[in-house]
Design goal:
Blueprint: H1 2-26, H2 34-37, H3 39-48, H4 51-67, H5 70-105, H6 109-130, H7 147-150, H8 153-177, H9 184-210, E1 218-224, H10 235-249, E2 255-257, E3 263-266, H11 267-284, E4 287-296, E5 299-307, E6 313-317, E7 336-339, E8 344-347, H12 356-364, E9 367-375, H13 381-395, E10 398-404, E11 407-411, E12 417-422, E13 428-434, H14 443-447, H15 450-487
Parallel strand pairs: 1-2, 2-4, 3-4, 8-9, 9-10
Antiparallel strand pairs: 1-13, 4-5, 5-6, 7-8, 10-11, 11-12
Helix pairs in contact: 1-3, 1-4, 3-4, 3-5, 3-8, 4-5, 5-6, 6-8, 6-15, 8-9, 8-13, 8-15, 12-13
Length: 488
């Protein structure tokens, strides 16, 4: 009995280790290497555990893995949303691991190794197209400090990054389990194929970075502060707060970018503000972008006001809103691309950049620089900034992002952060140049989620294969019972 308890503790310890690695991968400031090993310990534990314990082992790993982001979801969505996300993450991880174990015990090594990465690449794909939060929450964002790894996003987006990372941990888990049910020759062939796939992706990333050449770019000034506690309700109040800093940094050819929703105006004063700012921008031959909440006919819109050097101004309306937090705001429906002599410039607002489909639309419209006013939640500053960086890798565009309660930065099309600054109580400006690379759109921008949808199909096939085998086994068991009764 003591031996059994000791063995059970060891198995749950392995499951907890996987959970801890997942927690480090899903954290607001993740450790990139943790995701590469995360599936392995719980795969080993589940294969060694009695069938009755397997569901609980895998759920332990999933629950611990989801805990690190629980407080963030609590802040953004409340208790119900946070609990629901935690449960869904735990159940998804449990199902993926047990799918792997099923195929290991059948001796199907290729299916076993593919089960976890295919499952999560498929889930990522479905979330990108169906979730109100887009690609947020993907384990792919754990890799933002591993530049060679994230280059594969230019081919297959978030699902491709997820697949490569989890393929490594899944292969390691199957190899460490050392089960006798898997044919050695088949396992060696599967291992070689998986290792070659991972190696090819890393080699692609290294070559892409080695060959990366960024143009000198456009001068940008990103102005942000957390010190303004109340939202100005007039254009004069806005100018008193930000006008001096804008005047200090504006100049010919400069793009001055301010955060999301830093002033709130009725429709008529908003249009008047647009005319005034456009005249100012024309005087200095600069571009100025300001985030404004506009009240019109009983509805609110979250907009970016873009004042151009030619004396005109344009509006962009935020298309993707935060559920609950922005419930009273009407979303926009159209992208906005500004045509400049050197490059096309797109405009998006904060949450918009959680949606790869939007950045692909901009890339296909030849936008090679994205201007993004943003407003973060403090705790998510690094993660939301890096999510936006990955949109640039996917689409082949540089990004300039000015954020309150977050990080203002400029990044290039390869995910390299050129410069960044965390906002604080002082009004301050990040002055740098945003690479305006006229290069082609990426394969991902042109082809979309071909790889991801392929993973959805393969996932469905794996689930169907598992279900059909289980049904066959149940039928065989029933026939054996009938035969035993007849013999009696």
């Amino acid at each position: 009995m003591p031996g059994i308890k000791k063995e059970a503790l060891g198995l749950y310890g392995l499951a907890a280790l996987s959970g801890g690695l997942l927690a480090m991968s899903y954290a607001m400031h993740p450790l990139w290497w943790a995701a590469w090993f995360a599936p392995a310990p719980v795969i080993v534990a589940t294969l060694r555990a009695p069938v009755a314990s397997r569901r609980w082992l895998t759920l332990v790993a999933g629950v611990i893995g989801g805990i690190s982001s629980f407080s963030y979801h609590l802040t953004v969505g409340g208790w119900l949303a946070a609990l629901l996300i935690l449960v869904l993450v735990a159940v998804a991880w449990s199902g993926a691991i047990r799918l792997t174990v099923t195929f290991v015990e059948r001796g199907q090594s290729l299916r076993a190794v593919l089960a976890v990465p295919v499952t999560w690449a498929a889930i990522d794909t479905l979330l990108i197209h169906l979730s109100p939060h887009g690609s947020a929450g993907s384990i792919a964002y754990s890799q933002m400090d591993a530049l060679p790894v994230i280059q594969v996003a230019s081919l297959g987006g978030v699902p491709a990054v997820t697949f490569v990372v989890l393929l490594a941990g899944s292969l390691l888990g199957v190899l460490l389990a050392g089960t006798s049910t898997v044919n050695r020759r088949s396992l060696l062939a599967t291992s070689a194929l998986a290792a070659a796939s991972i190696g090819a992706c890393l080699l692609f990333g290294a070559v892409r970075l080695h060959d990366a050449v960024s143009a000198p770019g456009v001068k940008v000034a990103l102005i942000a502060t957390d010190g303004v506690r109340t939202q100005p309700r007039s254009w004069d109040a806005f100018r008193k707060i930000y006008g001096g800093e804008i005047a200090r940094v504006i100049g010919p050819g400069t793009i001055v970018l301010l955060p999301e929703a830093i002033v709130r105006l009725p429709a008529a004063p908003a249009e008047q503000a647009g005319r005034s700012l456009a005249a100012y921008a024309s005087q200095h031959q600069a571009t100025v972008v300001v985030g404004i909440i506009v009240e019109e006919a009983g509805r609110l819109t979250n907009r970016a006001l873009i004042a151009q050097p030619d004396g005109r101004y344009r509006w962009y309306l935020k298309q993707h809103l935060i559920p609950g937090v922005e419930a009273g705001i009407t979303p926009g429906t159209r992208p906005l691309v500004l045509r400049y002599a050197t490059t096309g410039i797109g405009v998006a607002i904060c949450k918009d950049m959680h949606f790869p489909s939007l950045s692909r639309d901009y890339a296909r419209s030849n936008a090679r620089l994205m201007l993004v006013p943003a407003y973060d939640f403090d705790v998510d500053d690094w993660l939301t900034a890096r999510m936006t960086v990955l949109r640039g890798v996917e689409s082949g565009s540089s990004i300039a992002r000015a954020a309150r309660n977050g990080i203002s930065f400029v990044s290039d099309r390869y995910g390299r952060v050129v410069a960044e600054r965390r906002s604080n109580a002082v009004i301050a400006t990040l002055l740098t140049r945003a690479p305006a690379d006229p290069g082609q759109a990426t394969y991902y921008a042109l082809l979309g989620d071909v790889f991801g949808w392929g993973c959805v199909v393969v996932w469905a096939m794996l689930l169907a294969s598992r279900a059909s085998k289980l049904a066959s086994s149940a039928t065989d068991d029933r026939f054996r019972e009938v035969a035993q009764i007849s013999d009696a």
